Amino acid sequence: MLGNLYRNETLVQMETYETEPAKVEELVSQVRSKWALLREKGHAGDYPVEVLRSARNGGSVVKVVEVFRWRSVQDKVNASTDADYRALTDRISALTVNKTIEEYTQAVRGFNTNFPGIGGVELLKGVCSCLLTVDGIVENYQMSVKNGVVLMHRSPQMDLDGDGKNEMYLKILMHGGEIIQAGLGPIRVEQNFNVPNDGIVKSNGGENDFPGTAIWRVGWRIKTAMGPVLTDPDTPLIFGPAKVEHYPPVGTHFHSPTGPVALIHEETGNRVGTLTPGELTAFDIVVTKDDEIYADVLNTPPSDIFEILEEWNQRTRGGEDVEPVLASD
């Protein structure tokens, strides 16, 4: 059962307008302007807006449907008293013969029965935490990286290791985020492209693919005022294993059992501190797209990913022994 099924409680708004065919282009233009105005004033959420229009089909009216998300309940209230917004909605009303407004709560997209039969790419928003020590500057700083995004490719449903249980290999194409720390200034955490950044979801067996067990391994390059530093390239940062009930794994907390790893100054090669990875969590789906062709380079996992999953499953009893590392909000 998907534990966190709903998001954006009553913030998704759908408005349906009916207009005469001669006015439909102007109506679409005004609806687009409405959303742009809400974004400029900070009232509309950062989700892509949908503006749809029906075909005429010989009828006397054409429908235009607008779907967007308010940033908050208070923003919805504030917009209703905004003079520019009210003027724009008046212009829209003058172009319509009928209008309905409905509010919805958004359900998380994804798969929760079987792994998808076709590969694809997901762009997710997320957050990761760690304890950061830079010698002489900061010690065990509880760092929580903001503006986090991850772009990753999922392989289609396959039994990759021939054991009768399906898997999805997950290749991370890009991930990163930022934070500002008093001693180090602006910090950019991003992917070290010189080491593996990937993961796997393996079915636990049974009638369906879910639930499964997932694990990630990554390496980081951290841009700081003292220059870029790397997490030890010979020690991957492991997140998981964790039980997953759905994919993309929005809301699943991947705690790290890795422990402290050395931080290496990229330019000098000197050890300058340690980083203890804490938790990795995706909290939203920005976009998901299925593949158009099957590409071996994206869908073929390295053999050691199965070894990593098995090793950490045994060391942590399937993730039960992983203690979370706390980080600041």
Verbal overview:
- Strand 15 and strand 16 (271-290) form a beta hairpin.
- The chain has helices at residues 24-40, 73-80, 83-94, 296-299, 304-316; strands at 6-19, 50-53, 62-69, 98-107, 120-134, 138-154, 167-181, 185-191, 198-203, 212-218, 220-223, 229-231, 237-244, 253-255, 261-265, 271-290.
- Strands 5-6-7-8-11-12-15-16 form an eight-stranded antiparallel beta barrel. The chain has a four-stranded antiparallel beta sheet with strand order 2-3-1-4, covered by helices on one side.
- It is built from five helices and 16 strands.
- With 329 residues, the chain is of the alpha+beta class.
Tell me the structural class.
alpha+beta
Number of DSSP-assigned strands = 16
Which outline best applies? globular
Kindly, what is the distance between the CA atoms of the first and last residues, rounded to a whole number of angstroms? 28 Å
Rg (CA only): 24 Å
Q: Which stretches are poorly predicted, pLDDT < 50 over at least 5 residues?
A: none
Largest sheet: 8 strands, antiparallel, barrel
Strand content: 35-45%
Helical run tally = 5
Estimated helix fraction: 10-25%
Nearest-integer average pLDDT: 90
Strand order of the largest sheet: 5-6-7-8-11-12-15-16
Element order: H for helix, E for strand? EHEEHHEEEEEEEEEEEEEHH
Short description:
This protein is α+β, with helices and mostly antiparallel strands and 329 residues long. It is built from 5 helices and 16 strands.
List keywords for this structure.
single chain, 329 residues, alpha+beta, eight-stranded antiparallel beta barrel, 5 helices, 16% helix
